[in-house]
Amino acid sequence: MAHEYWHQVQNTAGTKSGSVRVELQGGCLAGIWAGHAAKAKHANGTTFMDPFSKIDVRSALFAASAVGTTGSSRPPPGR
Prior knowledge:
Layout: H1 2-13, H2 20-37, H3 54-69
Helix pairs in contact: 1-2
């Protein structure tokens, strides 16, 4: 959900959509938000969400590397 929220922020800011850069930026900004949400506390002292586990971080890095390498270094077909 945070990733899609940041895509809306990107759209509002006029960021060109559809690129690998936009996807990676959306994921990065969502991660920043989620990291903050894992530290910010409700009035009762509980955090908004659980902190990231090592597996969460590893999975996110794997996904980002897959998105970042999928065709980003090759020109589009026919060019």
